[in-house]
Amino acid sequence: MAGKTIKILVGKPGLDGHDRGAKVVSWPEGCGHGSDLYGLHKTLEQIVRTAVQEAVDVIGLSIMSGAHLPICRRLRELMKAEGIEDIPVVVGGVIPKQDVPS
After folding, report:
1. How would you list the strands of the sheet with 6-11, edge to edge?
2. Nearest-angstrom CA–CA distance, 17 and 39
3. Cα–Cα distance measured from residue 49 to residue 75, given in angstroms and rounded to the nearest whole number
């Protein structure tokens, strides 16, 4: 992808209002990519629909609620249904050690 601007969609699913991290990683100045903070309190369906419409290269989720596993499972189901399951997903927030592969 040398020379290509990577388009990143950063989403905050559910009712989680802690958005500082999402704002930091979606700040494109000097990062060599284009990103968009999609906003707070979005459904996974809205995030996937926007990813399709905007033809993004990466989907990022900021999840502070501790519900990252079911949220990510559902996101992947929706992505597969839309034919975008090849788009990488990056998740940040509160991820317990037991949920991180060693």
Report:
1. 33-37, 6-11, 58-63, 89-93
2. 10
3. 11
The CA angle 32-33-34, to the nearest 5 degrees, is 140
Which three-class secondary structure state does DSSP give residue 4? coil
Neighbouring-strand partners of residue 42: 13
Residues of the chain with pLDDT under 70: 1-3, 14-40, 102
pLDDT, position 40: 64
The residue assigned the tokens 């559902």 is: 74
**Helix axis angle, 44-54 relative to 68-81, nearest 10°?**
40
Q: Per the structure block, which two tokens stand in for 57?
A: 């290269």
Contact present, 9 and 51 (Cβ < 8 Å): yes
pLDDT at 49: 94
pLDDT at 19: 60
Do the Cβ atoms of 54 and 34 come closer than 8 Å?
Answer: no
